[in-house]
Amino acid sequence: MIAFYFFFSLIVLSQAATLIRFADAHAVAICFWRLLFATVLLLPLMRGKWREYARLSKSDWWHMLGSGVMLYIHFYFFFRSVQETTVANASILFSLNPVFIALGAWLFFRERLHFHLWLALALGILGVGVLFAETLQFRPEYWSGDLWGLVTAICFSVYILTGKHLRQKISNIPYAFCIYAQTAVYALLTAQVANIELSGYTTQTWWAFLGLAIFPTLLGHALFTHCLNFLDVNFMSCMTLIEPLLAAIVAYYLFAEPFTPWAAVAFLLTVASVLALYWPSLWSKYSSRQL
Q: Which residue stretches of 196-241 are H helix?
């Protein structure tokens, strides 16, 4: 049953880009309604958990603020990426975030930098180069979307690193509730300042907003987090590499987006990059079980 939960979580997480394509709205509006709906849906689960916020110090609240800002920036650029390039390209570029997280852990938390991290970075950069080479030479209209895809992977990595120690002080639900709520507020403020319309959308767009809140935001992340208690985290991190492929398959049938040979090469390089990052840990666990 745990295996079913895990693979189901990967499927719904991979379809965030697909749902964004069904939302005919500005990136800020998508971010606002997705996070507002997610916050409201989490509210009943906050019963008895409000007191956990009392454990946080002033410094912790600054980290919480920083996490929310980075998550908002991540969502904004991810939505723009999906709107301005192919689903495959956006998903592949975002899947590089484990490599950026490892690099950030070395820079900010002084975690040891091993050869496999350098190899992962080299393969990841090569994969990005392949995608950008295709964009610049053959698909100039996708250049900005690919750039946003790279930015969103970096922003998501900073979000994870910023909130790293907060997850040790409060549980997942109050952390997610606070992060989602403040991210919705940032989107609302941006919409007011930039005069972005937040209403008047089609029924399809409203369903897309709700679907984004229920499936990838809540259901996908909730099941993925639940599986962390039963499955090896390194194995799970590597398995998330199938998300771009799942997203590309659905986009091929729904939007007639081809999975180009260059995208296939970039996907394989990205897979190799993250495998290089986690392989030593996976191999040591496998070897210990054999003994």
A: 203-212, 221-227, 233-239
